[in-house]
Amino acid sequence: MEGAAGVSRKRQRWLGPAMLLPAMLYVLALVGVPFVLAFLYSVGDVKVGSRGYHFVGLRNIRSVLQNPAFLTALRNSFVFTVASQVLVLVGATILALALKDAFRGRHFVRFLILLPWVAPVSIGSIGWKWILDSLYSVINWVLVRLHLVNAFSPPMWLGEPKLAMLSVILVHTWRMLPFATVIILAGWTAIPKDIPEAAEVDGARFFRRLFQIEIPMMLPIINVAVLFGVVFTFTDMTVIYILTRGGPYDTTQVVPSLAFFTGILGGDLAEGAAISIFLVPLLVVIAWLMLRTARRAEVT
Amino acid sequence: MAIVQTRKLTKLFRKGQPGAVVDVDLESREGEFLVLLGPSGSGKTTLLRMIAGLEEPTSGEIRIGGVVVNDLTPRQRRIAMVFQSYALYPHLTALGNIEFPLKAGKMPKEERRRKAEWAAGLLGIPHLLHRKPRELSGGERQRVALARAIVREPSLFLFDEPLSNLDAKLRVYMRTELKRLHRDIRSTMIYVTHDQVEAMTMADRIVIMNNGKIQQIGTPLEVYDTPASRFVAGFIGSPPMNFFEGEIAADPSGSAVLLGGGVRLPLPRTDLSGSVGRKVYLGIRPEHISLAASGRPISDSAWAALGMPAKVPASIEFVEPLGHRAIVTAGSPIGSFLMETEVHAAIRPGEQVDLWFDMNRAYLFDRETDAVM
Predict the structure, then answer these.
(1) Is the complex ipTM higher than 0.85?
(2) CB contact under 8 A, B85 and A194
């Protein structure tokens, strides 16, 4: 008995690290190395096709900070993230509320709601590109038929600065909604049935139960959903890239898309890296918050 | 004021399946402590939840204080309920929990505070008010849940197995506490439990349920002494009543019951002459079987002198001492059975003894209907 335990303990000593190794290598190769490279590029003079590397200190950073396009992108990033996450949160809570109790066809509705999440984002966004197209927009078609807008100057959803921002925010919300809904739904089903029932017997009506009992109890899980959404939104550029390419006149340009256009399409790797480095401090704060919330959620 | 009446109350969870509650007619009395007792799945909790308004009846009527409440929400029924899990709000302090029903009733803050402190004082927990539920022990949570229930001074309390999550010692203590509370506030209380000791010790009246139906309603002594059916007889009493299959037979002294192995026990009744040949169960409680008073074997004439000669030869199989008394498993031609008796030198596994069945305390149940005869 003791011998066997000794062997298995010895095995445990290398088995654990061995099983972690592929994941570690993966993270190192695909996250660690590019991250270090980005740092090096941001303080160098690398361009696509250039051979040498010269250290230039904070020159790129200074140049980025003086670039009005970057400051716009930074502001847009915040608007894009905050607006879409607020919409996602409200929408997901309402959807989860509607879906938590059993009704006929609930599974089908759940499936429909998950579709935007499981469909490839490129397909979804291309669909939206047509829906919001200046000539073929079905939204405009409907609005014109309802006599809500003028048939000769319909709204240019992706062509006017305010409407373009609204459009990318709504499409991104559409895309993120399923994920947040599923998380909040899970939080809701984790509340013991007794507790809302006790609140009901205690005389609390629907909104009091919702805002004073159920949502506070789900807060740790809602926090997780929000933090994931913020990270995902702040670092993502797919919807913007496909719908507006940052336009018109950079009014929907966000930090990741600007970094991509400057560094990859524009060939100025160093400046692109310097732009993306600005995401780091913010994401560090969020990551810290995330870990803290996750730990708290475990305790309760 | 807070009399609960149900009429033909029925709850079917699925069509075609037996109902959870079937045609229940129940009427509580003012200020009474009414216990719904039954095994799990007997429908007692469903009945309570229908009274609370948490479950909608399939058919039938519920009245509280004379008013039909079928279409009223739990809020409108103005009752208090204590859940098995306590159902405290985990993000609120004990004070927040106790105040919650008052807040929902829009009571001004100062009055709310005063009331909450009064309720906490009644339960002896004023020092715990600032703590969150997870910082409280099981018994303390229980008290917070009780304080939350009484703080609105409702005229009707519903309890759903509130003591079943406590350890044995605390449970016995809280039993007394609850009785004291009932005496102090004199509201009608309906209390669900599957623990017959809880029911016997706390109830003014017990409602015994099985398979969604009421089996018997009565005071603890009534259901113990005059059970209406074999189910009630077997459910009330610990250790449970013994049952023996038998048949009514004629006897020179009146009638008798013929049991397995040819054992024939006389019945001290004169109303069974028309029932000769009926298949019955003989029921007798473990505490009504004993060795002869002296503990020594006695002669047949001495048995006869005891007035009701009902001697059963048996062998002792197991003895479970409880201290001053013991539960004895005995084997005999009529089947094995339990008896509860004083600890005795003669009671040792393997001993052959004659046991005395107190036939004055025996019951007969019809084997077809299970009803008492």
Answers:
(1) no
(2) yes
* β-strand pairing of B188-193 with B156-160: parallel
Q: Say which DSSP state A210 is in.
A: I
pLDDT digits (tens, 9 = 90+) for B199-244: 999 999 999 999 989 999 999 999 999 999 999 999 998 889 999 9
Give the 3-state secondary structure of chain B: CCCEEEEEEEECCCCCCCCCEEEEEEECCCCCEEEEECCCCCCHHHHHHHHHCCCCCCEEEEEECCEECCCCCHHHHCCEEECCCCCCCCCCCHHHHHHHHHHHCCCCHHHHHHHHHHHHHHCCCHHHCCCCHHHCCHHHHHHHHHHHHHCCCCCEEEEECCCCCCCHHHHHHHHHHHHHHHHHHCCEEEEEECCHHHHHHHCCEEEEEECCEEEEEECHHHHHHCCCEHHHHHHCCCCCCEEEEEEEEEECCEEEEEEHHHCEEEECCCCCHHHCCCEEEEEECHHHEEECCCCCCCCHHHHHHCCCCCEEEEEEEEEEECCCEEEEEEECCCCCEEEEEECCCCCCCCCEEEEEECHHHCEEEECCCCEEC
User: Cβ contacts (< 8 Å) between B84 and chain A: which residues?
Assistant: 194
| Nearest-angstrom CA–CA distance, B317 and B332 | 10
| Percent with pLDDT over 90 in chain A | 14
Report pLDDT digits (tens) over B271-323: 877 788 888 999 999 988 887 644 455 555 655 555 555 788 888 898 888 88
A204/B contact by beta carbon, under 8 A: yes
Specify the pairing of strand B205-210 against strand B33-37. parallel
Residues 6+ apart with CB under 8 A from A34: none
Residues 6+ apart with CB under 8 A from A159: A134, A248
Q: Which of A105-109, A206-210, A268-272 has the highest mean pLDDT?
A: A206-210
Distance CA A55, CA A46 (A): 9
Contact B87 A300 (CB under 8 A): no
Contact B37, B193 (CB under 8 A): yes
Chain B residues lying within 8 Å of A203, measured CB to CB: 74-75, 78, 101, 104-105, 152
Taking CB atoms and an 8 Å limit, are B74 and A200 in contact across chains? yes
pTM over 0.90: no
